[in-house]
Amino acid sequence: MPVDIGTVVAGKITGITKFGAFVELPEGKVGLVHISQVAGTFVKDINEFVKIGDQVKVKVLGEPKPGKYDLSMKQAAEPSAPDAAGPPRPRPERRAYGKPKEMHPPGSFEDKITQFLKQSEEKLLDVKRNIQYKTGERKKGKTKLKKT
Questions:
Q1: Is the residue at 60 inside a domain?
Q2: Among 14, 16, 47, 115, which residue's Cβ finds the most Cβ atoms within 10 Å?
Q3: Which helix (H) or strand (E) holds 73?
Q4: Section 111-121 average pLDDT
């Protein structure tokens, strides 16, 4: 059976290192399954997934040198059943400064400055109320502070 890029072939694990496993392919060719291509999950120790002498299915990813192949066990595995939830949902739009995009009104510079000043005054008023409440100058809910 010829070893062509993109095909799935059977092989035998002949060596294991920290970074992957060497696989003997048909016709005496050799390939490497990098540790990131062993399984669909994070692999810390490759010995938990394969042993020397194991027969494995691998997908041929490339041939960086003649007779030496890049292989993947992860891509050769049967595709798992799709989740019951369906396809992944699109990510929501990013927010600018914590506010939804639609709250930033398009307009002139003067409109933006006016809105900024209004928000600043409201925040400053909240800070003043909080300070008065903490110092005892203001009882909760009895008096209102006037805007100046």
A1: yes
A2: 16
A3: none
A4: 89
Structure confidence at residue 16 (pLDDT):
93
Residue type, 66: P
Residues near 65 by Cβ (< 8 Å), separated by ≥ 6?
none
How long, in residues, is the chain? 148
Is 124 a domain residue? yes
The residue range of the domain holding 18 is 8-72
CA–centroid distance for 49 within its chain: 24
* Residue 100 structure tokens: 């939804």
Longest dimension (CA), the chain: 90
Instruction: Please state, in angstroms and rounded to a whole number, the distance separating the CA atoms of residues 48 and 138.
Output: 66
Instruction: Provide the residue type at 104 as one letter.
Output: H
Place of tokens 């016709």: 27
Rounded-to-5 percentages of helix, strand, coil across the chain: 25, 25, 50
Separation of CA 63 from chain center: 29
Name the token pair of 90.
């699109």
CA distance readout (Å), 96 to 15, 99, 103:
52, 6, 10
Distance, CA of 52 to CA of 22 (rounded, Å): 9
What's the predicted TM-score (pTM) here? 0.51
